[in-house]
Structure formats: structure tokens, C-alpha cells
Amino acid sequence: MSKDQYYKYFYIKIELLYAPEIIPYFYSIFQKGFLFPCRVEKSIDDLLLNQLALEPEFVEKKVSTVFLDGCCVDDISSALLKEGSTVAFSSALPGLAGATLRRGGHYACLRESITHKKQTASEAEHEGLVTVKLFNILMAEMGEPFLEKGIILDGAAARDLFNPRHKALLNFIKNIEIRGKGVSCEEFFQEKLLSSYDQIMIRVVRNTGSASCGRCSDCNEMTKEQAPCV
After folding, report:
1. Edge to edge, what strands does the sheet with 12-17 contain?
2. How far apart are CA 149 and CA 144, in angstroms?
3. Which residues pair with 153 in a beta bridge?
4. Rounded Cα gap, residues 89 and 103, in angstroms
5. Which of 45, 81, 82, 111 is deepest in the core (most CB within 10 A)?
């Protein structure tokens, strides 16, 4: 299944205009984990360098600790993502524990029992879903490229993200689609449509236009007030 087909699969898609100040709204989501459509039966190295287009120097210096399905990864080029895998990324952690968990570190031998072993692909590469978690400074530095590709939230996480207490975030909503049909911000939040779906695709896009959905004249005014979402 292609990535475009994945996007079509999700009934609700919400696009937000990019601004640095929206990234912190996602921090709790990054730590708890989100679904991400990517090529599976491919390495973590491929995900970071090719699919997310991160700089090799950034990956080498900043992505210090990697877990795949609960195991520490030393060699990200040989650790394969499978359908349903959980991968976690962290920068350098403090103390001996951090040094032990660091990929390729001098103390890696101390956690041999939880070190990820080299894998071989069990099937042809294809589009799939994995769970991604981000921690500490990587939430800010890696959150943006994941959001630009598009992440998938469950209904509870989406309802919390678009809670009225986050009304500043609502001003950055650019577009909302349900089953491929655009709906206004006003209709979406008044009808409490987030409660009707288990998976919601969230994407951040760069745009110099107005930070409104552009589909209703009252949208901006509504989001400036107490938006009635869930």
C-alpha cells in the first residue's frame, strides 16, 4: 500500500500550518507514542536518513539511544522495522545508565541481554505502521519532520490535543477532511466529530497563507473564543 493510499484510508485528516510554537503541544504525544506510516522491512537507518531525510551528522551525534521493541540498538543499519514495531529515540542520557544504553558505547557489553540482534528481512519491504516515541531534546528536533510526513493519533490523544484549553493551537488549523470531504472548523468542533473516530491523521504543512481552514467565514472568530471541541 502506498503512502498516499494510507492517507486516504484514514477517515479524518487534519492539517496544521507550521509554526515553531505548535511543536510543544505534541510533547506528551511524542513520549507516549504515535503511529507512523513508513516502509517496513527496512532499517531504522533508512527511516531516519532516507524516509525522514535527516542529516547523517545529526543522526550520528544526536540520536544517541535507540530502542526497538524494548531492546537497545547499537547498529541502526541492521535493525529492521517490522509491521507493528515500536521504536524509541533519545539523545544522550546522563550517568552510567545513559552510557550503558548509548548505541555503540563503551559500556554496551553491560546490557548484552537486552541488546537488539541483527535481523534479516522476512518479507519484501512494504508500507506499514510502526509506533514511534521521542524523548528529551529529540522531541523538538525530530518532532517536526515526523509531523510534516504525517502522524496518526488515537481518538483519545486527538481529543486531548484539540481540547479547548489549547485554543491557540486551533488557530493553526488549515484544513480538515472527513472521508476526503472538506468540513469547516466550526462544523467539525460543534459536531464533536473527534469522538466518532479511533484514528486521526495529523499533518503539519508549511504555508504562508492564513492560519484558518478557509472553508467558513466564522472559523477564525470561533477559534479565537472557546472552541466547543469535545
Report:
1. 71-72, 65-68, 86-90, 126-134, 34-40, 151-154, 199-205, 12-17, 173-178, 181-182
2. 9
3. 200
4. 11
5. 81
The domain ranges of the chain are 1-30+143-230, 42-122
Compute the distance between CA of residue 169 and CA of residue 182 in angstroms, rounded to an integer: 19
**Number of neighbours of residue 160 by Cβ within 10 angstroms:** 16
Rounded distance between C-alpha atoms, residue 173 and residue 152, angstroms: 16
Cell numbers for 154, please give them: 488515537
pTM exceeds 0.90: no
DSSP per residue over 137-188, as a string? THHHHHHHHHHHH-EEEEHHHHHHHT-GGGHHHHTTEEEEEETTEE--HHHH
